[in-house]
Amino acid sequence: MRTLITWCALALAAVVSAAPAKECAHKVKESIPPPRLWVKERPAPKDLTIELRIALPQPNFFELERHLYEVSDPFHERYGQHLSKEEVEALVTPHPESIHSVNEWLASHGLTESALTRSPANDWVRVKVPISLAEKMLDTEYHVWRHTKDDNYIVRTTSYSLPENLHEHIDLVQPTTLFSTLRGMDTTFRFSQDTPAPLSADAPPINIPSASGGKVDASCNTTITISCIQQLYNAVGFKPSGKNGNQIGITGYLEQFANIADLQSFYADQRPDALNSSFKFISVKGGLNNQSIEEAGAEANLDVQFAFGLTHPIPGTFYSTAGRPPFKPDVLTPTNTNEPYTDWLDFVLSHPNPPQSISTSYADDEQTVPESFAKRACNGFAQLGARGVSLMFSSGDGGVGDGDSDPATQQCFTNDGRNKTQFVPLFPPACPFVTSVGGTVHVPETAVFFSGGGFSNLVGVYILSFVSQFLNKLPKGTYAGLFNPKGRAIPDVAAQADFFRIFLSGRIISIGGTSAASPTFAGIVALLNDARLSKKLPSLGFLNPLLYAIGANFPKGFNDITIGNNPGCGTPGFNATKGWDPVTGLGTPNFGVLKDIVTGPLARF
Ligand SMILES: *[C@@H]1O[C@H](CO)[C@@H](O)[C@H](O)[C@H]1NC(C)=O
Ligand SMILES: *[C@@H]1O[C@H](CO)[C@@H](O)[C@H](O)[C@H]1NC(C)=O
Ligand SMILES: *[C@@H]1O[C@H](CO)[C@@H](O)[C@H](O)[C@H]1NC(C)=O
Ligand SMILES: *[C@@H]1O[C@H](CO)[C@@H](O)[C@H](O)[C@H]1NC(C)=O
Ligand SMILES: *[C@@H]1O[C@H](CO)[C@@H](O)[C@H](O)[C@H]1NC(C)=O
User: Fold this and answer.
1) Is 72 domain-assigned?
2) What remark does the entry make about the cofactor (predicted)?
């Protein structure tokens, strides 16, 4: 790596004295216009503690990316040769000079090693400081901001600075410009008496040629159970080993707890052979696990019941990550919180054997996540992929964008101060290193109207041929200016996403959202991994290159969804079409076909 010594660093070096190191003048590192719908209320309390999270550059990330694509490309000779934790860390570690410069800067503010927490690769440093010190370090002023719609509060700034000599040694500092909108993707929620009446028990099964036995119970049209998923996705009769090292994980945020009593009721209802089994609970940064049945979370219960119900006896893990990004200034919160994905990433990256299939049903509007931060979080997901972990994310519940809640306009605006109308994709599903899962409904399957889809402002190369096939069919000028046709396209795949029958606080409810689709798809991936691990084949890891290769070569691996659209932002959204589309991606999985592809001679392509 080239060593760049700025005039200022030279000037500092020339000051040969025992005097404390002087800093270069501060220069703005990042600045954003006031984010839409947030208003500045008052200066932040000076003694409020925040945890600064500092990202040091990863000068060899392009190397990690090369390894990632090689070991994830089924046509490559290195397919499946995932990297070890140590190999990945070596590829994202910062230059020693960056570590040294940042250490000096922190020390000049009285922050020495014992105050710091470092990621395993040393590419992130965290330190708790009072607002007064953060303001000095970043030459900024923090304020309490209020969201005008939901009255949430957050402590942030729209601009921060760093000494000029540090600009090349620090990618970003948060919390500063990140006005996050993290939310669960469990959009529809009804008590089961509000769901459409199930067809009578003796209604004839629905003919679905790709399903197990070519038929699916009629009841699955309006009530999704574990058995429905097994039938529809051709997985009836597959018995995972559960003892070959395979695991599945579910992440939980926003103080959502998966209730064990509800899980047992669910098992009694839908998976009696799993009764008495449970999952491993892991607390990340003090994430709670309140098992009081009233505290059960709809999102967490849905994710856990379907992911673990589909994959029993594969060992399951539920991660509860602390932090509710909207900060409540009236509550005595000891520390303000950061974007929790990175807390979870730090944690899971530090573990030698994370689950090989992990589902997350939470996301932010991409435009509320500064690109600097999105890139670094996305790079973290790439590290897990290189280690053989498949990451599934719900694609979103607002179609091409949630829009304003004013039903008259339903417009979607950019967050950059220009009030430009634009579709709003979600992050992390927009990260090219994760698998984004959209939604379907009914049997035979059609796209569900809320299925998040569209085009990100991040880049994702491997799907371009599919995307151009779609875009070429789109009438010229369709939604011109509303989306970035060169961006990473969302979603990659889909699964059922409505009328899921689960237990919540002791009651049966029917729930939907791409929140249902992601753990379902992750469950199918865990079953595929189980079949592979039993044959001593490596886990599937970063899935997308494989999924698109299957889409191109073995179209029967997915059930193509061609009916439906995903309205949003006051438009009808995109249409589900033959082939890939920005509503349901490649389609829903056919486990039986996929298993033969990933375990049979076809595995070599
Ligand atoms: C499934 O339910 C939908 C919506 O209620 C209905 O339009 C459709 O006809 C049903 N399909 C079958 C096969 O019964
Ligand atoms: C679960 O535990 C109960 C009580 O210990 C027992 O009666 C039952 O057989 C167990 N069920 C299974 C499937 O292991
Ligand atoms: C946890 O559950 C108990 C009841 O068991 C309740 O009183 C308490 O408020 C809950 N704690 C949190 C942090 O939600
Ligand atoms: C954007 O819209 C908000 C209200 O939603 C308005 O207050 C603001 O002036 C607008 N800004 C521009 C640049 O049009
Ligand atoms: C979706 O399909 C309808 C009906 O064929 C058509 O009128 C509409 O233009 C299509 N929309 C897009 C965005 O392709």
Assistant:
1) no
2) Binds 1 Ca(2+) ion per subunit.
pTM of the entire structure? 0.92
Pairing of strands 357-360, 390-394: parallel
Q: Give whole-number Cα distances, 216 to 413, 442, 527, 594, in Å.
A: 42, 11, 20, 19
CA nearest ligand 3 atom 13, residue: 290
With respect to residue 481, please indicate whether it lies within any of the assigned structural domains.
yes
Judge if 213 and 158 occupy the same domain: no
299 is catalytic: yes
Which of 39, 419, 421, 422 for mutating ligand 4's site (highest number of atoms within 8 Å of CB)? Answer: 419
Residue 41 lies in a domain: yes
The domain boundary, picked from 127, 162, 179, lies at 179
Q: Which of 23, 303, 402, 492 is catalytic?
A: 303
CA-based end-to-end distance of the chain: 38
Backbone angles phi, psi at 324, to 5 degrees: -120, 100
For residues 532 and 388, give the distance between their C-alpha atoms in angstroms, rounded to a whole number. 12
Same domain? For 227 and 356 the reply is yes
515 is catalytic: yes
320 Cα to the center of ligand 3, angstroms: 16
Mean pLDDT (10-residue bins), the chain, 605 residues? 48 46 82 88 90 95 97 94 97 97 96 94 95 96 87 88 96 90 70 58 89 95 95 97 96 87 95 95 87 86 96 96 57 50 90 96 87 92 98 95 76 81 92 96 96 86 80 93 92 96 92 95 98 96 95 94 95 96 98 95 58
Can you tell me which atom of ligand 3 is nearest the CA of 292? 5
Q: Are residues 329 and 454 in the same domain?
A: yes
Residue 75: count other Cβ atoms within 10 Å of its Cβ: 11
Residue in 361, 456, 515, 518 annotated catalytic: 515
Residue 86 resides in a domain: no
Per the annotation, does 561 bind a ligand? yes
Structural domain count, the chain: 2
Strand, helix or coil for residue 547: helix
Atom of ligand 5 nearest to the CA of 475: 14
Establish whether 560 is an annotated binding residue. Answer: yes
Q: What is the CATH number of the domain that holds 396?
A: 3.40.50.200
